[in-house]
Design brief:
- With about 180 residues, the chain is mostly helical.
- It has one domain.
- About 50% of the residues lie in helices and about 5% in strands.
- A two-stranded antiparallel sheet has the order 1-2.
- α1 crosses α4, α1 crosses α7 and α3 crosses α4.
- The longest helix has 17 residues.
Length: about 180
């Protein structure tokens, strides 16, 4: 995926980094690879984002903003609840001014990628540090798993979150169940 020269370099870098972050996680985010995929000089990463961590933060912010654009009329995906969006914006510390200035084009693949990145990041954080109750976690993770699912009939996927003890890691299990019309 070479970056389209029609897009500004900052957007091309965010798109390239998002794709790599989805596939490799934050540990696999390499500045050289992002620049190559975006078709940009790697110095632009430092110009726009200061460093690799700044780029990673900007990618997470962009994914949260993208998920907040879900429109149930135009998308086959269910929108996230206002409470879930507020949690994501607070947890990832999305700057308020960025929420109104970053214009991203939501597509099915970009929304799916956003959900995968957010799920990956939330699961990477110990559940001791996630400041949310079980009901919000259930609603948020279920919605994100439906969006992230590459299965065309994702709306038929039942996601269950299991915890054997309050302080232990949560496990996620998705099951496909036929929907009866």
């Amino acid at each position: 995926m070479q970056g389209s020269k029609a897009q500004p370099p900052q957007i091309r870098l965010l798109e390239a980094a998002s794709e790599l972050l989805m596939r490799e996680g934050i540990g696999g985010l390499r500045v050289d690879e992002v620049a190559k995929v975006a078709g940009c000089n790697k110095r632009l990463i430092y110009h726009y984002f200061t460093n690799k961590d700044g780029l990673g933060r900007a990618v997470l912010w962009a994914q949260v903003i993208l998920l907040s654009t879900l429109d149930p009329v135009q998308s086959r995906f269910p929108p996230l609840s206002q409470r879930a969006l507020r949690f994501l914006k607070d947890f990832f510390r999305v700057p308020a001014q960025l929420q109104h200035t970053l214009s991203l084009q939501p597509s099915e693949s970009s929304l799916r990628r956003a959900a995968v990145i957010i799920v990956r990041e939330l699961l990477a954080v110990s559940n001791h540090r996630l400041p949310l109750d079980e009901a919000l976690w259930q609603a948020l993770s279920s919605s994100l798993m439906v969006i992230a699912s590459p299965i065309p009939s994702a709306s038929k996927t039942k996601v269950s979150i299991h915890s054997s003890a309050p302080k232990e890691r949560l496990s996620i299990r998705a099951e496909l169940r036929p929907r009866h019309s």
